[in-house]
Amino acid sequence: MARLAGAQAWLSRPVRIVVGFPPGGVNDILARILAEHLSERLRQRFVVENRPGAGSNIATEAVARAAADGHTLLMIGPPQVINTTLYHNLTFNFIRDITAVAAVVRTPNVMEVTPSFSARTVPEFIAYAKRNPGRVNMASSGMGTSQHVAGELFKMMTGTSLLHVPYRGIAPALTDLIGGQVDVMFDPILSSIEHIRSGRLRALAVTSLTPMDVLPGIPTVSDFVPGFEASSAYGIGAPRNTPADIVNTLNEAINAILADPRTRAQLAGMGAKVLAGSPADFATVLAEETDKWGTVIRTSGAKAE
Questions:
Q1: Has residue 305 been placed in a domain?
Q2: What is the pLDDT along the chain (305 residues), one digit of tens a residue?
């Protein structure tokens, strides 16, 4: 009863879910799904606020500095854990300054090319890249994104030299990939699947360790590059010191949304695997992801531009 009363006092005005990228990417899509369901379940408006820039650091800093009253939340994705290592002069500490609220999904990436690209398999792509070092353009939605580090991991494990071309968001990156201005991208399935289904992009492989039902017949990168795995955890965070009753109320609401068969089917159809658990569970996931991608960044020598 005390938690319910506290939640009612907290939900006296709309709640913002801050997204560090323009509309159309995975973070934005997931935030809008959550906003719709949270608005219905908690009977208060949850609105998405897109604050792109600096590889999502602008959004993360805005939430880290916001009042810890439950009215400002952060849509957490790969950049938050990656940027911890990639950037050296951040004015915030992600692990310290953002409270983990709830995990939402984990989604692998898909290695994709424009249909006109000559390589039709991962081995053919590797051979082509080795014949043309530094001449194959690898797009991403920005420095420190899942596309970026998945590509860096691929380069490390295959000995290829791909030229990273970061964009300001997924929409322009996909536009240029479809148009043939860049050659390859390791994009989250969720944001690319409709382009693959329509034939505008060709999937070479998925970056999970096992094939994905939503892309039947598509192999895994690990089939050709043993041990390769690149997937991304997404969830919701809040400013440090947000009251525990608010965090727990949000966690329970999000877990209830994810338990709904309709929501699970919607997310599975986009290539996302539902995650659930306590705030502590999500904090553990974030710590593990920070360590994994930190190693890739340090080993590859990737630097923020």
A1: no
A2: 445 455 557 898 999 999 998 888 889 999 999 999 999 999 999 999 999 988 899 999 999 999 999 999 999 999 899 999 999 899 999 999 999 999 999 999 999 999 999 999 999 999 999 999 999 999 998 887 889 999 999 999 999 999 999 998 888 999 999 999 999 999 989 889 999 999 999 999 999 999 999 999 999 999 999 999 999 999 999 999 999 999 999 999 999 999 999 999 999 988 889 998 999 999 999 999 999 999 999 988 888 76
Predicted TM-score (pTM) of the model is 0.84
Give me the CATH number covering residue 91: 3.40.190.150
| Burial degree of 204 (CB within 10 A; 0-12, 13-18, 19+) | buried
Q: CB-side exposure of 241: number of CA atoms within 13 Å?
A: 5
Domain span at residue 270?
Answer: 2-107+231-300
My answer on whether 101 and 149 are in the same domain is no
- Separation of alpha carbons 156 and 162, rounded Å: 10
**Total Cβ atoms within 10 A of residue 261:** 7
Residues 123 and 92 both lie in one domain: no
Distance, in Å, from the CA atom of 92 to the CA atom of 9, rounded to the nearest integer, reads: 29
212 and 285 both lie in a single domain: no
Q: CA 304 → CA 60, 72, 166, 297, 301, distances in Å?
A: 16, 27, 10, 10, 10
Token output for 114: 């424009």
